[in-house]
């Protein structure tokens, strides 16, 4: 596929990533109202108060409706992010190959395009990873929506959650919250470790090619040969942090319900 077609496809996928997931996740009238962010947040907050008050680990119909919608939403976003990542990688390779054959102002424009496609590819990778662990733990990924609400019943509920955490108590709803919180961070750690391993392999391949290259090819390979290891190191820090949180969730949960993330 040519460069222009790849660029058009990338733009189309970016637009779809922003506007399509809500439509794809909603199942007619049953969850159509949740496509509105304000309605989703408000509904989840109300259902969370009900869920906590029930004292049960399992979700009632109202909460299950929200969690199921959010699960499908993450699947839709993840598929679109994966497709966008593939297109951006292909576009970046095509642009850099054209750059190596070109001189002058066109080469400068291609270099800008190559850098932009790389940045967008990294953002797409981050979006894909976020939606993978969001799909694995949709309830856990909904929890940040609890904060910033006006004073009301939710404040009392969050206060009870904080009290149970501080006292080391356990209840069925808190057990579910803890389980999804751990799963959320464990999946982040696993997928991050996989990506780090892939980036390390890519860095090795880039530097091997660098030793056999010359001229502008050598400079392009050197740039990516530095960028990829730096990216892998940054992601390795995230992996360690999430592994620690999954292994010892209580401090993280206490900080989270105190208003942190």
The radius of gyration over CA amounts to 22 Å
Largest sheet: none
Order of helices and strands: HHHHHHHHHH
Strand content: under 5%
**Total helical elements:** 10
User: How many individual domains?
Assistant: 1
> Which regions are unreliable across 5 or more consecutive residues at pLDDT < 50?
none
Proportion of residues in helical segments: over 70%
Question: Roughly what is the average pLDDT, rounded to an integer?
Answer: 92
How would you describe the shape?
A: elongated
Question: If you had to describe this structure to a student in words, what would you say it looks like?
Answer:
The protein has one domain. It is built from 10 helices and no strands. The chain has helices spanning 3-19, 21-25, 37-54, 61-100, 104-136, 138-142, 153-167, 172-212, 215-247, 249-257. α5 (104-136) runs antiparallel to α8 and α8 (172-212) packs antiparallel against α9 (215-247). The mean pLDDT is 92.
